[in-house]
Amino acid sequence: MEKHRALIIIFFLSFLLACDPQVKLDPATLRIGLTAEPDTLNPILASDAYAERILGYVNDSLIDRNKDTLDFEPKLAERWEISKDGLEYTFHLRKNVKWHDGQPFTADDVIYSFNKIKDPTTEAPFLRVYYEDIKNVEKQDDYTVKFTYAKPYFLALSMCGGMPLVPKHVFDDGTDFNRHPARRQPIGTGPYKFGVWDTNKKITLIRNEDYWGPKPAIREIDNIIISDEKIAFQVLKKGDLDFFSLRPIQWVKQTGDEKFNALFNKYTYLLPSYNYIGYNMQKPFFKDARVRLAMTSLINRPKLLEKINYDLGIIIESPFFPDSDQYNKKLTLHPYDPAKAKQLLTEAGWADHDGDGILDKDGQKFEFTFLYPSSATFTERLASILKEDLSQLGINMKIVKMEWAAFINKIESKDFEATSLGWSSSFESDPYQLWHSSQAKMDRGSNFVSFENEEADRLIEKARVEFDKQKRNALYYRFQEIIYNEQPYTFLFNNYSLVVVSKRFTNVKVHKAGLDPLDWIPATATQSQ
User: Fold this and answer.
1) CB atoms within 10 A of CB 384
2) What's residue 12's pLDDT?
3) What angle do CA 278, 35, 199 make, to 5 degrees?
4) Distance between CA 345 and CA 359 in Å, rounded?
5) Does residue 463 sit in helix, strand or coil?
6) Contact present, 70 and 56 (Cβ < 8 Å)
């Protein structure tokens, strides 16, 4: 299920499943829970993990990564060719693929999807940055399409082959693409068809009996929307859930009894995702790198990892996956050091000049707002600890939480001072989307914190056209040194995935890319308790 596309926003949501105990359970149904609704199910506009999880079953891409080797393998394209200069990528499409409404999938759909991504009126700037160097996409016949780059790009194959696809015959009807009704009724080519979206309750997917590839054993997937994680966990423990992503305290202390183990198997693995505290560098408190470094020095990450996450994660210092050779392993951990933090703040001009216990500078007190989304249990505990620790040095942090849609609107419009979120990426990533200065100036760009650095821009741009992995990684190592010194984020942890799956399902395998319910085989018959 690992496709290469833009980084997506996460906040370590839980996936869970629930059922009405009075309703007989179809044993071939998998119920997955979401703690919030996706904003859209248009695959070109979607930018959050909720939509990504659902659309992964509805849509196929031209190619995909093998779940174990991570090598690319055919999907909607049965083969592809790359020119010797690395500028042309030609995909030969399968001829037996149909959209879920029965219309054939052709090169016209690929070209239409590309044009909508490139269209500046399409609300997908986070995705557009990966396609800006493509100068032409050509239909050679109904089942052959060629992408031509203006300059080389080391992720060209994965970005062209993993491009989200939409049906031209559905969207090209004169309706506003961003508001098209199909954003809530997606039509894809994947192994599951969209069923129904009952707002704030459930999104149901039905197995595609006309799927071009092997059909999965699970006939229906119900994505149940439950915003309260504690209630969801109680539903899980009653045995009314099949699939759940646990919090560390639940993994360590609340799921070890005999009854629980009789119902579920537990799985853990590491995927490229991380959480962080981000500082809006447009706000006066966080313009100075010394202040941002002081903030990191005031955050006791080893203690947070132990107390909140029970050591089920890895402390990181950069945005790359720590298990990859892109990660600069020479970066040492910024230690918890309140004395150094105080020194840095003093050098930056922050001191308690009026003796009220709050740092101030030029008549402004160091009082800022920490914004986070509701249902983010980890961030809720993090905020409480931060507020207490920062107060010891005379920094007043106000905590504000809000529901997801309102929260993400605040973040994208840069109307915040500090926040905590997460990013999920592919195993090999390009930092352009998050860290290039052009993305700080773009409406709805992903550089929320407005990080701008000329040397970082040059390194990112040079790495994009460097096909020698060692040379490219050397550029990324220097880029990470800049991030390390500038501290636009306090990087927290690459957390382990902690997942339970009902014993109703067999053939559950932990791949290098994680779990894939398409493998799973449900028991022949059972009923909820």
Assistant:
1) 11
2) 43
3) 120
4) 9
5) helix
6) no
Return the closest-CA partner of residue 274 out of 162, 420, 402, 412: 420
Identity of residue 58: V
DSSP state of 379: H
CA–CA separation, 63 vs 73, rounded Å? 6
Task: Convert the pLDDT of each residue in 465-520 to its tens digit.
Answer: 999 999 999 999 999 999 999 999 999 999 999 999 999 999 999 999 999 999 99
DSSP 327: S
Match 């089920």 to its residue by tokens: 312
Please count the helices (runs of H) and the strands (runs of E) in the chain. 17, 24
User: Tokens 């821009």 sit at which residue?
Assistant: 457
Residue of 226, 112, 218, 121 whose CA lies nearest to 178: 121
**Token pair belonging to 213:** 């590839």
13 in Cβ contact with 54 (< 8 Å): no
pLDDT digits (tens, 9 = 90+) for 214-234: 999 999 999 888 878 788 888
- Beta strand ranges found along 191-248 (DSSP E): 192-198, 202-207, 220-225, 243-245
Residue 350 to residue 359: CA distance in whole angstroms:
6
Q: Contact at 8 Å (CB) between 503 and 265?
A: yes
User: Cα–Cα distance between 148 and 150 in angstroms, integer?
Assistant: 7
Phi, then psi, of 10 in degrees rounded to 5: -135, 160
Tracing tokens 């529901």 back to the chain, one arrives at: 403
Cα separation of 243 and 14, whole Å?
Answer: 10
User: Under 8 Å CB-to-CB from 158, ≥6 apart: which residues?
Assistant: 4, 63, 72, 426, 428
DSSP string, 276-336: EEEE-TTSGGGSSHHHHHHHHHTS-HHHHHHHTTTT-EEE-SSSS-TTSTTS-TTPPPPP-
H helical segments located in 90-167: 107-118, 125-128, 156-161
Beta strand 418-424 with 273-279: parallel, antiparallel or unpaired? antiparallel
- CA atoms of 23 and 46, how far apart (whole Å): 33
Q: Round to whole Å and give the CA distance between 160 and 82.
A: 12
The whole-angstrom separation of Cα 373 and Cα 355 is: 34
Largest CA distance in the chain: 76
The runs of H, that is alpha helices, within 267-313 are 289-297, 301-307
Q: Please check whether residue 394 is in contact with residue 366, taking contact to mean a CB–CB distance below 8 angstroms.
A: yes
The C-alpha atoms of residue 237 and residue 467 are separated, in whole angstroms, by: 50
Determine the 3-state secondary structure of 52 from DSSP. Answer: helix
For tokens 């609107």, what's the residue?
409
Residues in the chain: 529
Do strands 192-198 and 360-361 pair parallel, antiparallel, or not at all (unpaired)?
Answer: unpaired
Residue 460, helix vs strand vs coil:
helix
Is-contact 216 108, C-beta < 8 A? no
Summarised one tens digit per residue, pLDDT across range 5-23 is 455 555 444 443 334 444 5
Residues ≥6 apart with Cβ < 8 Å to 378:
11, 12, 247, 275, 308, 309
